[in-house]
Specification:
Bound molecules: adenosine-5'-diphosphate, magnesium ion
Number of strands: 17
Largest sheet: 9 strands, mixed
Strand content: 5-15%
Structural class: alpha+beta
Helix content: 40-55%
Length: about 750
């Protein structure tokens, strides 16, 4: 009854014709992006200058200049064969959205049509907002929402075999100006961190015009053959397998990570990279990940806004390209139980307008002092607000991955490495100050550059680890948009920088006042005052924040207990994690930095809860259908087959008194009994699940989400255990669903 064995025949790579000497990447990198260079070639110099000024936070371009840029963008796109354009935005669905419009309009003078694109159309779009999640911001009768061009991310052309579309990265706002998307808050948070960092840099005598956050995003994913995928309703509808016995060989041998890449996968990777390069996505790293058929791509870091757009675009390219190779790219956090899930590591740092990395210690003690101040700002931010970062990484999918063996737990902590930890505790204890003035500099701060070259100090279990010249946030799931997490990091660090900056200024003014009678202090003395003031402030901040620092194994069971003692949050349940976003101090924080309004926060909370609950609802319904229409009918068929066999055996032994080995009949009865028991328990638990699902109908959102976590999910897992037991005992030809060993190994 099953055609699983037929599928094995159809699992095959598509034919790829060999390219002997592909052109160098630099010759086609970014050909599909309307880069600044492309714009500069096509618009008057004055317009380009105005555009740059606007981009850097200055005056908005004039309507005439917008028209010029729009015309240039259209010409560029039409020359390359684009016939439509679309504002490309990031609604709260977590996915990207697009609505295509043609460039053509009626040619009033000559009849027919001409290609035209105006500044108005470039800047503002008006998709119907009523069908996007708004979490109550916009009542459904007020459907108006606007997309508005984000000039800081270049427009790009997407191509399929028969056509091309110009996509314009945009924000998405309601009629009332509230953010209905993930991009606008990220842009606001970049403005907040720029202001805070520029102010802080000023104290250290650095004149930066602006600072932006930078992001390098490591994207993990699975690939399976499309033929298997199409036979798994759970993968198609829920993105993960809801049943499936472990493959006897999984990742035990640790032979997949960085292993030789299969030819079929390598062809896919070449294809993805080629597409990505055309779109100006600097993918440089690709390798096998830990689980069978699991892989990773990582581009070179960029400004966060661009990195976030490019990551979304890359995910899209990965999915589309996979289908062309008769593969399916799975971006779910935990598509297969029992082997590693997929994360999305976000490497984060700050860069000033000259490209200096603020988390890179410099060559002088003063530069190292600035580095330490930025570092301690991050530590303080995480101590005060790590719950927000946990919330930004919470989802039904990621819940399956967090706390499992391969991913950091739901407890947020910060890893600094042995040597930085030593330096931090010296600053905290103030011991350095006890030595000669010059002494503390030699002892700690000036040693930093040497230490930094040694990046072997790693802790793969930490959710938020300092890794050389950046922090690596490892909690985010593979399917997620990084924007919310980066928005949170930017905002909480901006807040800490402002607080620490104020404290340093206060300390310095105290020093100056104390010495007010003493004019003409030499610069060395002033420099020493500065070092002493900064170290004093940092010492106090470290003292109050150090409970967030953890160097040990985050996977160990002791850590949960230890973290509890330290008063750290451990929100295993996503709905509990979401709550951090609507706590009073969070609302005050985000409003203070003009990143989210209270309305926007409440709406996000509702959207997340709603999505969480709906995801689990879809999973439960999918499981019920699969079990009812595929698993049970197969099991019944096998059961009746077994029953006939048993009956034959009984007749042979009783009626025909054929000599049989002792226990043969009993053994057959046992097999039949186990099968019947599994079927019985599947049915019993399915009926219970059905009843539980009915109960959710009248529940409020919060109650429903908790019910799904505490009641429905365990019930689903219970059913799964019996289904998986059947999978391991039923004959291959009876089992309807592709198995783990097939999906993970036949490629
Ligand atoms: P690791 O060994 O920690 O994985 P890699 O050098 O492979 O480090 O870098 C991982 C990611 O971190 C890459 O995407 C890289 O571009 C990014 N990265 C490096 N420096 C920075 C930075 N200053 N800001 C943000 N991301 C960075
Ligand atoms: Mg890494």
């Amino acid at each position: 009854m099953s055609n699983r064995s037929d599928i094995t025949q159809s699992v095959a790579p598509v034919f790829c014709s060999k390219v002997d000497t592909p052109p160098p990447v630099s010759s086609y990198y970014g050909v599909n992006t309307f880069s600044e260079a492309a714009m500069q070639k096509k618009v008057p110099a004055e317009t380009f200058r105005a555009f740059k000024t606007w981009q850097e936070g200055g005056a908005v371009i004039s309507p005439a200049q917008a028209d010029e840029i729009a015309a240039a963008m259209k010409d560029w796109a039409v020359e390359r064969g684009a016939v439509t354009y679309s504002h490309w935005f990031q609604p709260m669905t977590g996915l990207t959205a697009e609505k295509h419009e043609g460039f053509i309009c009626a040619d009033k003078d000559n009849g027919g049509v001409i290609e035209q694109f105006t500044g108005n159309k470039l800047i503002l779009g008006e998709p119907d907002a009523s069908s996007f999640p708004s979490g109550g911001i916009r009542a459904t009768f007020e459907a108006r929402g606007y997309t508005a061009w984000d000039p800081s991310s270049p427009a790009f052309i997407t191509e399929v075999a028969l056509g091309k579309t110009l996509c314009i990265p945009s924000i998405f706002i309601s009629y009332t100006g509230d953010a209905l998307d993930k991009k606008l808050p990220l842009l606001r948070s970049d403005a907040a961190i720029s202001k805070a960092a520029v102010d802080l840099l000023k104290i250290f005598g650095h004149k930066a015009k602006h600072v932006c956050s930078t992001c390098g995003i490591e994207q993990e994913y699975f690939l399976i053959d499309n033929s298997w995928y199409k036979k798994r309703p759970d993968l198609m509808l829920a993105g993960r397998t809801l049943t499936g016995a472990p493959s006897p060989k999984g990742q035990q041998l640790e032979d997949q990570y960085y292993g030789s890449i299969k030819e079929r996968v390598l062809n896919y990777m070449h294809d993805v990279c080629g597409e990505a390069f055309k779109l100006g996505i600097p993918v440089t790293t690709r390798h096998n990940e830990v689980a069978p058929n699991q892989y990773e791509f990582a581009p070179i870091f960029e400004r966060s806004n661009l990195a976030a757009d490019n990551n979304l675009l890359l995910m899209d390219v990965m999915k589309r390209t996979a289908l062309r190779h008769n593969l399916v790219c799975l971006l779910h956090e935990k598509p297969f139980a029992g082997v590693n899930g997929s994360g999305k590591h976000v490497n984060w740092s700050l860069a000033d307008d000259r490209g200096n990395n603020l988390l890179n210690p410099g060559d002088t003690p003063e530069e190292n002092l600035l580095f330490l101040t930025v570092l301690v700002s991050v530590v303080r931010a995480m101590h005060k607000h790590s719950g927000l970062l946990r919330a930004a990484a919470a989802s039904a999918g990621n819940e399956r991955r967090l706390g499992a063996n391969e991913a950091p737990p739901a407890i947020m902590s910060v890893f600094l490495g042995e040597q930085l930890t030593k330096i931090i505790s010296m600053i905290e204890s103030g011991k350095m100050e006890k030595g000669k003035k010059q002494g503390f500099v030699d002892l700690g701060v000036s040693l930093l550059p040497q230490f930094m070259r040694d990046t072997t100090d790693r802790n793969r279990t930490s959710p938020f680890a300092f890794t050389g010249a950046k922090f690596e946030f490892r909690t985010l799931g593979s399917s997620m948009n990084v924007s919310t997490a980066v928005t949170v990091i930017n905002t909480i660090v901006a807040d800490s920088m402002a607080v620490i900056g104020d404290k340093i200024k206060k300390e310095l003014s105290g020093v100056k006042n104390g010495k007010s009678g003493k004019d003409g202090r030499d610069t060395k003395e002033a420099g020493d005052d500065m070092i002493a003031a900064v170290l004093k402030v940092l010492g106090a901040v470290i003292k109050e924040s150090k409970s967030i620092l953890f160097e040990g194994n985050n996977y160990s069971s002791d850590w949960a207990g230890e973290a509890k003692k330290r008063g750290l949050q451990n929100a295993a349940l996503s709905p509990a994690a979401f709550k951090s976003f609507i706590a009073d101090d969070a609302i005050a924080l985000f409003e203070r930095h003009k990143v989210y309004s209270k309305t926007e926060l409440l709406s996000r909370y509702n959207i997340w809860l709603d999505k969480y609950e709906k995801t689990l609802d879809i999973e439960a319904r999918t499981l019920i259908e699969m079990v009812n229409t595929q698993v049970l009918p197969s099991a019944y068929a096998y059961q009746s087959d077994m029953a006939s066999g048993l009956e034959v055996l009984r007749v042979l032994s009783d009626d025909m008194t054929i000599d049989m080995v002792d226990g043969a009949l009993e053994d057959r009865k046992e097999v039949f009994g186990t099968l019947t028991a599994d079927i019985y328990y599947i049915r019993k638990n399915l009926k219970e699940l059905d009843a539980q699902m009915k109960k959710t109908a009248g529940m409020e959102l919060e109650e429903k989400a908790a019910f799904f976590f505490t009641v429905i999910q365990p019930q689903m897992d219970h059913i799964r255990r019996h289904v998986d037991a059947l999978e391991c005992t039923m004959p291959d030809e009876f089992w309807p669903l592709p198995k783990y060993r097939e999906m993970l190994f036949i490629l």
